[in-house]
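Two proteins follow. First one:
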Amino acid sequence: MEDIKKETILISGMHCVSCSLNIEGALKETAGVKNAGVNYAAGKAFVEFDAQTVSLEELHKVIEDSGYEVIKAPAETPVEAGSKPAEPRDYEQAARDKEVNSLKIKFLISLGFGLPLTFLAMSHDIGLHINLPSAFLAVVQLMLATPILAAGYQFYTRGIISLIKTKTANMDTLIAIGTGSAYIYSLFITFFILLGRGSYTSQDLYFEVAGMLLVFILLGKWFEALAKGKTSAAIKKLMGLRAKTAILIIDGAEREVAIEKVKAGDIVIVKPGQKIPVGGIVLEGYSSVDESMVTGESLPVEKKPGNDVIDGTINKSGTFTFKATRVGSETTLSQIIKLVEDAQGSKAPVQALADKVAAYFVPTVAAIAVVSLVVWLLSGASFVFALTIFIAVLIIACPCSLGLATPTAVMVATGIAAKNGILVKNAQALQLAEKTDVIVFDKTGTLTRGEPVVTDFISAAAAESSRILSLALSAESRSEHSLAPAIVEYARKNNAEAQEISNFSALEGMGVYAQAGGANVLVGSRGLLVSKGVRISDELDKAAQEFASQGKTVVWVSENSECKAIFAIADTPKDFALETIKEIKKLGIRVIMITGDNEKTASAMGRKLGIDEVIAGVMPAQKAVKIAELRKNSKAVAMVGDGVNDAPALAASDIGIAIGSGTDVAIEAAQIVLIKSDIRDVLESVRLSRFAMRKIRQNLFWAFFYNVIGIPVAAGVLYPFFAFLLNPMIAGAAMAFSSVSVVTNSLLIRNFSKRRPR
């Protein structure tokens, strides 16, 4: 029997998308691995495997054998009894900081040796003539260039290891060949100068090319690492919302423990101003809790015994104890963080092209470099000239920007979405949201509140309104009908007071009868009043017909065989529903409402919300069929719902959007979850998707454009016409900053601003 597990593995040392593709390929070829994906931008591998066949340690070894380092979580340190637990360290952030600092130090070392090296090598070109023997200058340049290559030794080790172990080249291989060729060529020339063979001088050396190339490449990698660290800022903020410790009640005493030590069933005490550490149910005490982080509700929510509390929310006033029910990976914040991490690790369909190009990119560039070298030699050019072309082609080519184009944008966009209460479960959903040209809304609970309320009350005599409300309140207080709470709430809001009643009886399917204040009171349908011989005035009858045409339910009230008033009851639109629908339409998206309600009620609500297309009287199983029909003639169909009956339709759509307050089934079936249950976030999901996809296309365009233009120029196609030859050092600088520009462009997604209807 298979034991399928999913693990995220943090990796250090990837320098380009070819590295990630090599690791991904090695993992996929491992027995027991069901699926594997490596995100170069995140520096993580996402692996699904059969634990009966392969262990996590074996997967680590596969990655390490490919020449990369696996960053593992540190072992837990025991906490002595009575002592306060240490602050948990973010080992992932520590690993990232270590990588950034390492690159910074390597760059500064290389720069320190590179500047004097360049000065000595190029002084003649700027009119400075240093009257020192060529042998001395050659040895000094060798001594200055060697530490630079030592600082960038990993480009050589990983480039060679990749060739030997995976039989594939990566960006490190190109760097190793390019800079290594310049260094080795110069090394031989140095020997010739020292031995006095030939007419070589220090002007024939290429040490500064090898050295300064690595200076620029290390600078670019340092900047890239800094920029990549910012792409996961949203995850860090989410993690920062978690409490680090919890106060448990153990044997009647309070004990502070690390959050990881809390188990289901533990009794937790929360004091004013503290974060609620885990999810649970209140046992004792009263308080108000700020839940805006999860629900978006600005007002504090009262908590009393039996109420549920959410981890990460803030206790405002009182002290209370609760029983922990959701701990560890089951807490709300942990699940949100896991969903965001999964989304950031997934690949958008648009990335497939970049991956395919990157897979063939390095060997193709190597072939172009060799061909360019041979062609220029055959054309009669000097070896030094041809070598310059060879190095420039190898160095300017960079699959890094191609590999970073999509994942960095996905990471930033999903992080920004999560920060704004929108959980995008995968990159495919992010891409499809942009293509959406049809959005189908469920009515009840999605566009409407899902709770009937009294919208209108008409009394036959205005002077009797208060008394009639009092009679209706008295009778309906005992009723179990679904519309009774709406009448009770309305009456109480209008200061009606209930009277003592007698002889109460519920008339199934029709209404209720009771004696109150010495009068016989009926509250129910028109049919009930007619069956009891109650007189109905033409004015009330006409008003009732008007309400019915609006899709409202009419409840009649009679006193002593005379109709006294009517209530019009209906479900009401959610806040901002009308405004949101208008804004969605402005984006050129077709809006449809689907419901199980009758045609009249559905059409009335549709008119109120500005929705022209309404599909009414649809059973839950038929919703999925309707969605499938719409998909045949649309680019992408989004379904927005909240209930169990919406789950099939959510799954059948191109992109399912679940209201966060809905059922677990609906949330599980959806690709996007609106945590705050704000209907306006449907609009924001589409807008953010369009913004992110625009950035991805910009990234891909510049990544392809840079290589399409850069490689031919480096190969010397302009030299016969304009005598222009690309200096390898300029090529190195361009290559280094191409990746930085792509990541920086992705980071601009953080400037996305919501334009919520108000």
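Second one, unrelated to the first:
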Amino acid sequence: MQNNTKKPSYDENEIQVLEGLEAVRKRPGMYIGSTSLRGLHHLIYEIVDNSIDEALAGRCDRIDIILNKDNSVTVIDNGGGIPVGIHPKLGIPTVEVVHTVLHAGGKFGGNAYKVSGGLHGVGASVVNALSEFMEVEIYRDGNIYRQRYERGKTVTNVEMIGKTDRTGTKTVFKPDPEIFEEVVFDYDSLLARLRQMAFLNKGITICLVDDRGEERVEKTLCYEGGIISFVEYVNRNKTVIHEPPIYFDGSRDGNYVEVALQYNDSYNENIYSFANNIETTEGGTHLTGFKAAITKVFNDYARKYNYLKENDKNLAGEDVREGLTAVISVKLLNPQFEGQTKTKLGNSDIRTLVENVVNEKLACYLEENPSVAKVIMEKAIVAARAREAARKARELTRRKSALETLSLPGKLADCQEKDASLCEIFIVEGDSAGGSAKQGRDRRFQAILPLWGKMLNVEKAKMRLDKIIDNDKLAPVITALGTGIGEDFDISKLRYHKVIIMADADVDGSHIRTLMLTFFYRYMKPLIEAGHVYIAQPPLYKITKGKEEVYAYNEKDLERIIKEKNWKKEEISLQRYKGLGEMNYDQLWETTMNPETRVILQVKLEDAVAAEEAITVLMGEKVEPRKEFIKNNAKNVAYIDV
């Protein structure tokens, strides 16, 4: 049978040419990652990055960021000020070129910026394109200049509005509600990122002000110690095994590297790498060079001073990095990042520079500080022995074939689907809830693993892998997921691409979720980084009025529903679920498990330093930091289950 449906034409008339900044508004995700909170914050970072570049060029030492009541943002620096003269090629003021033309900036060549993170020349123009309005004031050559834009388009000429004896740039912009899901900035997230910038640029003052509330909130950040202060900050709630942090730096051919490191008594490593102030979350050549060099230096030292005998195997990389907190920051003339997101550095010569600097300077430090070298070496030797004891993790967590399914946890109700990308596993608190979940699930693609009793707090227990895999609460999770843990982790062996933690909607359930997330963060972090971990959202209440049934997920939700439906409390029947086990299996399916109707929250790792701090403070062995956290945040808790 012939198909007479007319196919859409594809010719020269179908090729769209988006002029000016239209492309940015059409596809904002290509430029800022997303239109969620993360993308919203990215706008601020783009403007602040320009001010940081001024600081790197030696023209700026203070940056102020103000969150205004109308949800606009003001960024002020005391740099040189954006040039306002007519651009020789485009025939319009240079400040207008910077804010309305993509890939225009002073960072592609010349001497204005030797080192810069903003390489693509899209920062200011992208922020302009995605803002309801932007107004720029420039303090330069004794004059004050101003220009205004709306949704990327110039609406006023550059005009001189006064005289001044200062220099710098003031940018005010309001993110466009037509672009962003919600225009509400998160002060704490911004503070964490700006603190990071202050650490990486010692001596620069960054001030964040929140003017949106009834009371003005202000935080000034300035760290003369630079990345040494950064390492001390990350380790401030941990027990360190030597003080102060080890620091060294070096340069070659205009490229510069500095490293700060310090060991604590934990079994986890936290290494943060940066290139031109940009966090390279996927690492790159500088991180590779650092890891190779530190492993070589400690092995050479161990051989020289008989920590390792002739027949002993070399220490592995994970042995010498156990308990390590380190910051590697490189400043380079021509960085090569992989993609616009700049999360991985690709310069091959930087690996050589980092390796050489670490090999020389760290070896020298160990020779000059034998007492520090001794405590680090002893920790690494014990780690190596524990690693050998933990090798059975590979066998325990190997992905099971059809003949091996008997080795899967006995309580696991597996699914029928074999394609991991289509499968999901619910890790459920308690046998009774597990029973309801098993009855209510779609066995084609949903697996259920019930857990009983409180899980181990791995942050407090400080257990190495050999102990973790023997723990009766954790071993079933490790085995079911199939990925292994620690250095043996292999995400390609993940048996379910959605790992959903399903616990009661109360304080105990929150504790269970927190314990599980702590375990995943410490021993299976790539699961979180790849977006495979989710939190189920079971309802806390069932509201019945006549034949109508509605579920509320918390107290706030309950109040909202009653108000929206204009119900009187005496007219409704309210059932509070004390636990998942109280729900019928069909109710659990309808509210919490059915992909068509459920709400699940994806766990994301937005800020590695902030996540590390939260895990350490809330789940660690030190009580005082936790008390201080509760004291500072108790006033913000509006709803709590008692």
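SUMMARY FIELD: The chain has a mean pLDDT of 85. DSSP finds 22 helices and 22 strands in the chain.
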